[in-house]
Structure formats: structure tokens, C-alpha cells
Amino acid sequence: MLDQDPAFCGVEVDSCSGCLNYEFNLCAAVNKKIALTRNLEENASGLQSIVHTVPSRRPICHAKEWSDFVTIVCEGWAASSIALPDGRRQIHSILLPGDVVLSTGPFNPVFGHTVEAITDVVYRRYKRSELEALIFGHPDLFKRLTGMWSEAWLQANQLALSLGRRTAHERIAGFILMLANSLARRGMMLGDTMEFPLRLKHIADATGLTPVHVSKVQTELQRAGLVKIKDRSITIFDREELRRIAGPH
Amino acid sequence: MLDQDPAFCGVEVDSCSGCLNYEFNLCAAVNKKIALTRNLEENASGLQSIVHTVPSRRPICHAKEWSDFVTIVCEGWAASSIALPDGRRQIHSILLPGDVVLSTGPFNPVFGHTVEAITDVVYRRYKRSELEALIFGHPDLFKRLTGMWSEAWLQANQLALSLGRRTAHERIAGFILMLANSLARRGMMLGDTMEFPLRLKHIADATGLTPVHVSKVQTELQRAGLVKIKDRSITIFDREELRRIAGPH
DNA sequence: CGGGCAATTGAAATACATCAAGGCGTGTGG
DNA sequence: CCACACGCCTTGATGTATTTCAATTGCCCG
Q1: Which of A210, A214, A233, B45 has the CA that lies 20 to 30 A from B146?
Q2: Is pTM beyond 0.85 here?
Q3: With an 8 Å Cβ cutoff, are B163 and A158 in contact?
Q4: A146 close contact with B: CB closer than 8 A
């Protein structure tokens, strides 16, 4: 879906309303607020955003970058990670269309993170100061953001639980199911098939394993007839069994 | 220090001003705001809190509990964790005096977490609704909270990095150093010695290892003369070398 | 056609877990 | 006061999940 129409969101400033994920997250809320302030004849051209496009494998935000902007993914897949100087790194979130890049968070930027495009990515940047001003005036928008924070914190802790206490099989099965859920919520599943542009290295860095081992577990899952990974997409045949392998939640 | 005067914070409602950690975190800010609102003759008896005491090894907040209260630790050590039904669990933060129990977060409670007393613990509960009201009126207090969230998120991600990518030695050395820093900021270090009330199981659940393995690594660190663990306290002899073992940051 | 990344596969190495036994401190009941 | 049980820690022996190393293949792209 992404590849079929990479320019779907377009490049004009307020083309989000046409975006498939418009309703998904912050974008909708923000734009509706813009509409509201317009009606009120105040701050008419208030919240501007600039659309950027980045080819796959390129960084979107760098670890040291001090950012005055809040970034939201419009199109494509990206990975947010922390890296050690010796090259080890841990991906802590896969960013999909509609996701706010939390390290460029609406209230405070969080340093030390790197965001890298997995596929070609289209993203949008809001000026933090403007977004902040908007948020303070609108309690529901605010609620949405604090809710986002709590959820992100919970997810981070659950990732820690996985990395600390789950086996490779559990982690990988769980990772696939998590992606399937995220994509389903976005209407990006075609039946039981979804895009799967991740390299082994991505999965390895997200699950705390090595690419080699990820490959072995994946072929096991495939030989057992649970999934089929091919041509940068994955089909889930036996979701029930996959859930069983992913272990308790 | 904790054991010497467990009732240091007292049990009256606004005894925090005498607390060693009063200036450390939210308490100070909250209480100053109370003072401010008093001066303004509004909401005079606004923010009430109730002090609770819990003996070691007892739960403070349960996983399923819906909480209308925000909890702050006044005295003692506690652990916040997520558990799997089969008993595996991951501790994601050690809570020390002055720490806000983030799963009872100021804006939203976060479910699925368990908070357990390690030592005897004294904590204080604020009604969320009251705290929330207070926060909205006071931007600096608000800034403080969003800053807390960002920091907590960063820490969670760094924990994930450790669990996913660091060796047992790195994790344990890093864990000890982290505690030393936290305690130092609170003025709870006596030279290079600090309280260390954690059981092997706690350290294991915080580092994603088994108690047996933690024991082996600890005795290695001790034999190498880097630290000495004895009588529920730990002394750091060679912080430099410990940092080297903890690996890059 | 060749060169370079990505994935697969097998063999060997290793870090950590599991199992099991013993010791030490602490509380408890006789 | 002693005997005893119990929880916690230590230590060694063994087991295993995952890593590391290495060789091979396929594929994309010039």
C-alpha cells in the first residue's frame, strides 16, 4: 500500500485530511483545532507544518540534534532506537503512519535517540512552540497527549519485560503480532497479509537478538506453517498458534 | 539512614517540609504551590494527602487496581514491575524517597504494574483530581511533570537497551552505579557506602538474569576488589573500573 | 559479467540458566 | 536454651539457548 502510492499524503501543507491515517492519531486532532481557531478568527494561519521526504535507510533525527520541531510520520516505516558507541543498538519502536516521534516529543525533546527511515518516509514537522501553545488552549488535545505518554511508557516497560524475560521465540512471535495489530488499526492489513519491509537486522535490534538467530527462528515459524515471509511482506496463517508461542500477556 | 529513623517524615499531613528529600522532586513543588494558593486565599486547604506505612515485601499498588490517587514515596525502597502470569517479572524502576510512582501517574494511571515494598515504606497519596487541578493552574509545576515523563521514558528505553544488548556484567555494574547516583542525589551516600536492601531476586528481576547468576557476577566483582557487599549495604572501592565494566554510555 | 549486500545454514563456542548440595543466619516452638 | 525449619546465599556440575564464525546462495545494480 505504501509503495503503491508513496505520495498519497501529498506535499502541500494541509493535505493530511486526505491521509488514510488522518483519524488515527494526533494529526486529526491538531488539524481540527486549527479549523476551530480559524473559526474564532484568531491565529488563523497558526499551525504550520513542513513536509519532508526521506529515502529508506537515511536518518530522520539524529541522536545529538536539538530539535525545535515535533515530528509526525505520514508515510512509510521508521525505527526509533538508542545506540551504543560500539555499534550495539536497541530499537524501541517501529514508527508507522500517524505516529508521533516521541523523542521529538510535544513538550520536551528527549536526547540520545536516533530515528531512521526503514522504507522511504514522508514526515511532517510542527514547530514545538506553536504546537505547545495550541495544546494549552485545548484540554482534549492535551488529554490526548498525556494519554500518548502513558501508553508509550507502558509500551517501553513491556518491551523491557520481553527483552529481560522472554525467549527468542516468544519475542519474535510477539513482535510480529504487535506489528499486525498496529497495521490492522491503520487499515493496512490485506486479509492476513501485511507489508514487512524490515531487514533481519531491524528485527534483531528490536528483539535483542542477532540477525542469524532471527533467521533461524523465522524459518522455524515458516516450516511450522504459521507464517510466510516473502517479497517484503508477511502472511499470518495461524494466528492462534502464533499467540500461543508469543506466550502470556 | 532509613533504618535509623524510619518515622523521619512523620505521619502528619504536611510534614514533608522536614523531609530530607523534600527539595528533591515533586513534593517541594506541590507544597510550595499549596502555600501560594493559601496566600491567594483560594483553595486554602486544597491539596490533602494521606500517609501510609507498609512493611517490607508487601504490595503498595496492585496490577489491577484502578487508582484515583497519585502516590509518592517518602521513605524506604520499593520496586515497580510488570509480571507475567507464569511468575516471570521485570522490575523497571527502583523507587526511592521523593519518587513519584509513575504507574499512578499524575495524569493517567497506567495498568498492569505492581509496586512492592523492598524495605518498610512510607508513602503519601494525593487525590489525582486535586493534583490535576493544581497542575493546570501552575505552568512551572506542569513543566516539571512533563519533564518527569520524558525522563521516565528515556530511562525505560535505556533499560531496554541494557536488557537487549548488554552482558550480565555490564548490566550489574551499571545497575549498581545507577543506584549510587540516585542515592547520591538524595544525599543518601555515606562516602562510598550506601544502603543495599535488595535481595538477589530483586537484582535479578531488574537486570533480566537469574539470582544464581547475579550471585556469581557479584562475587566476581567483590573478588576483583571493586565493591564489597555486606550487611545489606554496599561499598564501592573502584568506581572507575566499575564504570569501565558497565561499558559505554 | 562481477561485486556487494542480505539471507540461509551448519558447526563450534559461550554466556547464562537450571539443577543440586551445603552453609549461614533467623525466627519459632518445645 | 536447644532443635529445627525455613529463607537466602553460595558454589559446582551440567544443560541449553543464543552467539559467533564461516561458507554458500541469491539478488540487485552497475
Answers
A1: B45
A2: yes
A3: no
A4: yes
